[in-house]
Specification:
By secondary structure, the chain is mainly alpha-helical. It is built from nine helices and no strands.
């Protein structure tokens, strides 16, 4: 669940201070071992106030992940406009490359990813991420269909479900190994990720035999 409504009434500087402290705590100690007391010490927010703004630790962690995703999306910007099928996939490729470049500008990104996928207590946050990602995937697929870049011989939500699970699985793979990958590795594997998505999503070739 998102933060309680009263959290959004906090001054922006206070919200950012709280989330910075929480982000550092989760990245350093993981979800299960993250401590409200250490976050409180860093922000001078009482434990009672923490539960006033967040229902539980998963709620706080979800707010950290929401802010991280929003920050990355804002910095990467939208995909370049596309006007045909090839342009659609080229646009997504360019967008993916910008996102890959930002990966190394976020030093705690892999730690937060391992925290997200590796700790069972964070499952409700994973579920939120999955729902948000699938909504974005559906919107992207529907745009691609208008350009003839995306197949329409299966239900769009079925295709989106498959892609969402693929992308989350690959995201977990990157989170587990990011510290050992070079920028060139990430760039290469990001292109391969796009290829996998295109293989799954593009219209079947007219020369491909039906099974």
């Amino acid at each position: 669940m998102p933060p309680l409504e009263r959290y959004f009434k906090l001054p922006e500087t206070k919200r950012n201070q709280l989330l910075r402290a929480a982000r550092k705590e989760f990245a350093t100690h993981g979800f299960e071992r993250a401590s409200y007391n250490r976050i409180i010490a860093a922000t001078e927010v009482s434990k009672g106030a923490m539960y006033y703004y967040f229902a539980d630790k998963a709620d706080l962690f979800g707010a950290v992940i929401d802010q991280l995703v929003a920050d990355v999306i804002a910095r990467v910007g939208p995909p370049p406009p596309a006007h045909d099928a090839d342009g659609f996939w080229q646009s997504l490729g360019a967008w993916g490359m910008r996102a890959a470049e930002l990966t190394f500008a976020e030093p705690d990104l892999s730690a937060l990813g391992r925290c997200l996928y590796g700790d069972s207590g964070a499952q409700q946050v994973v579920d939120r991420v999955r729902q948000q990602l699938q909504a974005a995937v559906i919107e992207t697929l529907e745009h691609g269909q208008t350009l003839g870049a995306v197949r329409d011989d299966v239900p769009t939500d079925m295709l989106a479900t498959g892609l969402t699970h693929l992308l989350l699985g690959l995201d977990r793979w990157f989170a587990d190994r990011l510290d050992d990958l070079s920028p060139a590795d990430v760039e290469h594997l990001s292109l391969k990720t796009l290829e996998l998505c295109r293989d799954l999503s593009a219209p079947p070739s007219v020369n491909r035999e039906s099974p």
